[in-house]
Structure formats: C-alpha cells, structure tokens
Amino acid sequence: MFPVLLNIKGKNAVVFGGGKTAKRRVMKLLKAGALVTVVSREFEPGLGDLEDENLRLVKQEIKEGTEFIKNCDIVLIATDDGALNDSLEREARALRRIVNRADRTSDFVIPATLETGDVTISISTGGKSPAIAKNIKKRIKRVLTEDDLYLIEIEEFARKKLKEKVEKQPEREKFLRELINRSDIIEKIRSGDTKGAKETVEMMIDAYAKH
C-alpha cells in the first residue's frame, strides 16, 4: 500500500450499495468535495433523504455497473452480495478504475481518520483490523493538544517568511525545528496574542537571516 491523502474535489465517484457502510463512504466522499453517484435498490434511512448538490441517487436493481463506472474516477463497492461485488470489481478493472470494496482488501482502504483543526491523521491496519485502527485513533486523539494546533498556524507563517529571507532549505528547516520548542511563542498564542506571536517570529527570522 502507498499511503497518501488524495484531493478528490470535483472528481466523480460511484458507490454501489445503499446500506450503512455505503452511507459512511458517501458522507466522507461528499465532505472531500467529490461528485457522488449512489446506485442501489434501496437506501439506508438518512441516505435517501440526504440533500447535497454533489449527490445523485439512482434507485435500481444493480445488474451491471459499466454505464456508471465509465463516467467516474473512483469506484466504491458496498453491496451485501459477494458475487455482485466480484462482477462490479471486474467491470471496474476492465475500465482501469481504482476500486474499494467494503468486504475485502482491494486497490485502496479507507482508514480510520482523525481530523482536528488543520491536522489529519489516518490509521490503517491494511484492512486486517478496523477495530484496532479505531482504538489507536482514540489514543492519538488524547495525545494531540491545542498547543500542536497553535503551532501549525505559526509554522505556516514562519515558512512563508523564511522563503522570503533565507535562501538555503537546510537553514529554513533548522529554524522551524527550533521554533517548535519556543514556549514563549506558545504562551502568546494561548493568551490570544496571535499577532504578537507572529511579530516575535518575524523578528527572530530577521535576526536569523543576518547570521
């Protein structure tokens, strides 16, 4: 597996199946900005009533999926019929589409994901134990602090300023590593003085650029 966070905004995705698993996948796809078509003979309560301009529901018996697959970039298969899932996967592969199956490992897995502020952490066991992945996610959530989130904003600001004033990449990286441990910067942000924190960082960068 090649771990990656994929930008699917505006990409076409088709989901076969309308149950609870399909619903979870649809919600994640919509959140990521995908254009989603869901094909199923029936829909989980809440999915059938979902209103989103990027969502199209097609209520029909699924016999073959080529007409939907050929117009999409990503295929997600989540029916309760293993033989049908096999058939849909073969159709998707014939059209060289990437496939996710809810019932077994395929081209990609959908990991347990923790999103807090600008931090996204994905945990996967390669499909071997989703329950363990969720447990690890809960433990990481307890470790992540507001200080980490505060520092992201300051690091982003510092990176932009460093690119303007410090030419060599290794020197920029050294400054950013040291910045993480600056408790005075964190204290300014905690007290709501983001402007003051950025002013301090900019003065530090000016001095660093002259050394």
Fourth CATH level, the homologous superfamily of the largest domain: NAD(P)-binding Rossmann-like Domain
Report Rg.
23 Å
Estimate what percentage of residues fall within beta strands: 15-25%
Architecture of the largest domain, according to CATH?
A: 3-Layer(aba) Sandwich
Order of helices and strands: EHEEHEHEEEHHHHH
Query: CATH topology of the largest domain, what is it called?
Result: Rossmann fold
Structural class: alpha/beta
Helix content: 40-55%
- Please give the order of strands in the largest beta sheet: 3-2-1-4-5
How would a crystallographer describe the biggest sheet?
Answer: 5 strands, parallel
How far apart lie the N and C ends?
Answer: 44 Å
Multimerization state: single chain
Query: How many helical elements?
Result: 8
Form type: elongated
The averaged pLDDT comes out at 91
Per CATH, the class of the largest domain reads: Alpha Beta
Task: Enumerate the spans where pLDDT stays under 50 for 5 or more consecutive residues.
Answer: none
Number of strands: 7
Task: Outline the fold blueprint.
Elements: E1 12-16, H1 20-31, E2 35-40, E3 55-59, H2 66-69, E4 74-77, H3 82-94, E5 98-101, E6 112-116, E7 119-123, H4 130-143, H5 146-165, H6 169-179, H7 183-190, H8 194-210
Parallel strand pairs: 1-2, 1-4, 2-3, 4-5
Antiparallel strand pairs: 6-7
Helix pairs in contact: 5-6, 5-8, 7-8
Protein described:
The protein has 211 residues and is of the alpha/beta class. The chain folds into 2 domains: 12-110, NAD(P)-binding Rossmann-like Domain (Rossmann fold), CATH 3.40.50; 146-210. 47% of the residues lie in helices and 16% in strands. The strands form 2 sheets. A 5-stranded parallel sheet has the order 3-2-1-4-5, sandwiched between helices. Strand 4, helix 3 (82-94) and strand 5 (98-101) form a beta-alpha-beta unit. Helix 5 packs antiparallel against helix 6 and helix 5 packs across helix 8.
